[in-house]
Write a structure and sequence with these properties.
This protein has 245 residues and is mainly alpha-helical. The protein has one domain. It is built from 10 helices and no strands. It has helices at residues 2-15, 17-38, 40-46, 51-84, 87-93, 98-131, 141-166, 170-187, 200-205, 213-240. Helix 4 packs antiparallel against helix 8 and helix 6 packs antiparallel against helix 10 (213-240). The radius of gyration is 19 Å and the shape is globular. The mean pLDDT is 82.
Length: 245
């Protein structure tokens, strides 16, 4: 399985997909920083620390909308690349377990999104340190909140990967994922958000504006784990039945 995963990473390196993924968070952070600078007097009046507004303005749209949409596009594109070049058909003809192919390709998509998260953390840290007063230290939530958002996004990644494998038309999985991502803006304000994994990233990444409590946090990750396991097993079961031609 390790060899298959390495080959998947090599494909990503050749496709220049990683470079594109690394650029995306910069736009959202820069937009958040510009918004902070524009309304700095208002933000600083409520809180003397610049870290809360800098982080929240950067994380707002990033966690609320980008992460679910990014998971949708990455998973759909990875699978479509294989279908388009008939690579998946060739891989299925090899003496390799289909379950290993399914899992490794899913992990390669997860790896791309993790890189995106790391870049987001680095950019926020750099800009925050450039703007901060000399006596203000960077809060730990700048590091751990995006990581929590990543883990909370895993069920969405699993669902979107499954849909991308199931439907050969890339626009089906992208359409479903986009609709659910947009819907999360509304569902997130209701008591039913725990049943809607697309709401999880924003609930996890926000440090000051959204507090869901420890019990809801643990329940969210438990529900996400159950969804991930169920969808993955269902996906592997269907993938094992997939014909070569």
């Amino acid at each position: 399985m390790i060899r298959i995963f390495k080959s998947e990473l090599l494909k990503l390196k050749r496709s220049r997909f990683i470079e594109i993924i690394m650029i995306i968070p910069i736009f959202f952070v820069v937009t958040g920083i510009m918004n902070f600078i524009r309304y700095k007097s208002i933000f600083m009046r409520e809180n003397p620390s610049i870290w809360d507004p800098v982080y929240e303005q950067s994380a707002l749209m990033y966690g609320l909308f980008l992460l679910p949409v990014l998971a949708t596009i990455i998973m759909a594109t990875l699978v479509n690349m294989e279908n388009k070049n008939s690579n998946l058909r060739r891989m299925l003809s090899l003496p390799i377990k289909k379950s290993e192919i399914y899992i490794c390709k899913f992990l390669s998509g997860c790896f791309l999104i993790f890189i995106n998260i790391v870049v987001f953390i680095l950019i926020v840290s750099i800009f925050g340190n450039l703007l901060k007063p000399s006596n203000s230290s960077m809060p730990l939530y700048v590091l751990y909140r995006p990581i929590l958002a990543y883990f909370s996004l895993i069920p969405v990644m699993a669902i979107q990967y499954y849909l991308s494998i199931k439907f050969s038309n890339i626009f089906v999985s992208i359409g479903i994922g986009t609709i659910f991502s947009i819907s999360s803006v509304l569902v997130g304000t209701t008591k039913f958000w725990l049943a809607f994994p697309w709401c999880y990233p924003f609930k996890s990444i926000s440090a000051t504006h959204v507090s869901i409590g420890l019990s809801n946090t643990l329940l969210m990750h438990f529900v996400g784990l159950v969804i991930t396991i169920f969808i993955t097993f269902m996906g592997i079961k269907e993938f094992n039945k997939k014909e070569i031609f």
